[in-house]
Write a structure and sequence with these properties.
With 394 residues, the chain is an alpha/beta fold. Helices cover 39% and strands 19% of the residues. Helix 12 links the parallel strand 12 and strand 13 (334-340).
Length: 394
């Protein structure tokens, strides 16, 4: 199975040994960050540093001023954690080691965007703004994300892209010093907390014949018991129970239409910029109502739009993730199973061979491994051993 590992440019730039170390794992491809959110990352083998702090969401290459002229929202170049064309420098080094390079582009997740342009953010039913979650229904936001997808994807040396957060973002953030775990929120409550009630979304609900005030009030009443006891309800059936079938359908219709338009537009923009054969994949979840890095999609729709999907398949999720897509794929569709291989972050490098075999049996055509730059030496050794076994799967 074709396997790619995720990397940041700072894992490679300044470390001459990094490209060969990655190639020696037995992978054919690297998925290299070109546009990424703020983060704090360990670099356990780098000769010059051990911790990289990316202070804000940024592009890891010099953005084209002419492209962004006239855009009210535009990307920021990285600071000293990835100066200049860090992406390009890393991509060139990786290619010289015989590795295929694909861009990794994070779209609808940017705290800096929310800080600089507060009116771009998702607003929940209580009126709280989520500065990390741009509302993709807003025309300026959608235009920015589509332009960012095209520019960040088609970098020199890249032969494909993976678009992360290409859809709705919401309540969950994994923010530094996050203090939101005191009351458990199940899958359904997370969705209700992610519904947007900004002016554009309220108009969208009304345009479909709904009453946005009624929807917001119903969301608050549905969530009220959980603030005292917590909530564990999950699945779309639970959402319908909490909102009622009609209001649940109203929210789904509005949000689904917005997400599909963004996904179609972003993929089309990348393809218009790229040469023929440039691969476009989306990080996705087969439940359309889900929000976050793996944006909820309609499997049948997205496999007609993109070349395939990257699916979170760790922790026993492979069957739930792969099954809905396997039912709709054709011979050219890519179903990439994303498996964690960093033990300290809940990954299972020792179980990689077995997990890969199971994913293949469920319809996966490729593997993605998160994350070669963050993994310990022991984790990487286990990955290399497992991939030698995986290579016999074909």
């Amino acid at each position: 199975m074709k396997t790619s590992v995720f990397l940041y440019p700072w894992d490679v730039v300044g470390d001459p040994a990094a490209p060969a170390r990655i190639a020696d794992l037995g992978v054919r491809q690297v998925t290299l960050a070109a546009a990424y959110h703020s983060t704090r990352a360990l670099t356990p083998r780098h000769p010059r540093h051990r911790v990289v702090t990316a202070e804000y969401a940024a592009v890891l290459y010099p953005p084209d001023p002419a492209r962004w002229a006239g855009h009210p929202v535009r990307p920021h170049p990285a600071g000293d954690w990835a100066p200049g064309d860090a992406y390009g420098e890393a991509a060139e080094s990786l290619a010289a080691a015989g590795l295929d390079v694909h861009s990794w582009v994070v779209l609808a997740h940017s705290s800096r965007l929310g800080a600089e342009h507060p009116d771009t953010s998702v607003v929940n039913a209580y009126g709280d703004r989520y500065p990390w979650a741009p509302c993709v229904a807003r025309p300026a936001v959608a235009a920015y994300l589509v332009e960012l997808a095209a520019e960040a994807a088609v970098r020199p040396g890249a032969s494909g892209v993976e678009l992360e957060s290409c859809g709705w973002y919401g309540f969950a953030h994994l923010h530094a010093h996050d203090k939101t775990g005191g009351v458990a929120l199940g899958d359904a409550a997370q969705y209700l907390m992610s519904l947007c009630f900004c002016a554009v979304c309220r108009a969208g609900y009304a345009g479909l014949g709904g009453d946005p005030d009624q929807l917001a009030d119903t969301v608050r009443r549905a969530l009220a018991p959980g603030w005292a006891t917590g909530s564990t309800e999950a699945g779309w059936t639970a959402v319908e129970k909490l909102l009622g079938a009609d209001l649940a359908a109203l929210a789904a219709d509005w949000r689904g239409g917005v997400a599909r338009t963004l996904q179609e537009s972003a993929v089309a923009a990348v393809r218009a910029e790229a040469r023929p054969g440039f691969q476009v994949l989306l990080h996705a979840d087969p439940a359309p109502y889900r929000t976050g890095a793996n944006a909820g999609v309609d499997p049948a729709h997205i496999l007609r739009v993109a070349d395939g999907v990257v699916l979170p398949c760790s922790a026993g999720a492979a069957e739930a993730m792969l099954g809905p897509f396997a039912d709709h794929r054709d011979d050219t569709s890519v179903l990439a199973a994303n498996l964690g291989v960093v033990r300290g972050m809940g990954g299972d490098p020792g179980g990689l061979a077995g997990n890969a075999a199971r994913a293949k049996a469920l319809g996966a055509t490729e593997l993605r491994l998160y994350h070669a730059g963050l993994a310990s030496d022991a984790d990487l050794a286990a990955v290399g051993s497992a991939l030698r076994e995986v290579s016999r799967l074909g």
